[in-house]
Amino acid sequence: MRMDFVKKAVALRYYTKAGVSLGYCAMIADMSKGDFIRFLGENGVSIFQFDSKEELLEDVKNA
Questions:
Q1: How many other C-beta atoms can be found within 10 angstroms of the C-beta atom of residue 31?
Q2: Angle at which helices 33-42 and 2-13 pack, to 10 degrees?
Q3: d(CA 43, CA 11)
Q4: How far apart are the first and last CA of the chain?
Q5: Helices (H), 1-63
Q6: pTM for the complete prediction?
């Protein structure tokens, strides 16, 4: 159980501070990508990261 917590904590830190990919962090946490995305949400972390409002609007426009 403790090792599970450590894996998730390390993956969360890598994702938020080091810019490591979602897929690799999910692998570190020993979770599926979907489960890792839910885990991020539970910890107040968004998978959507934009540098500016304009970048977000451009992404939405191109969707």
A1: 18
A2: 80
A3: 12
A4: 41
A5: 2-13, 22-28, 33-42, 53-61
A6: 0.77
Token pair, residue 59, equals 């992404």
**In Å, what is the CA distance from 49 to each residue of 2, 4, 15, 16, 19?**
30, 26, 11, 10, 11
| Tokens encoding 21 | 């990919």
Tens digits of per-residue pLDDT, 29-58?
A: 999 999 999 999 999 998 887 777 787 788
For 18-31, the pLDDT digits (tens) are 889 999 999 999 99
The DSSP symbol for 53 reads H
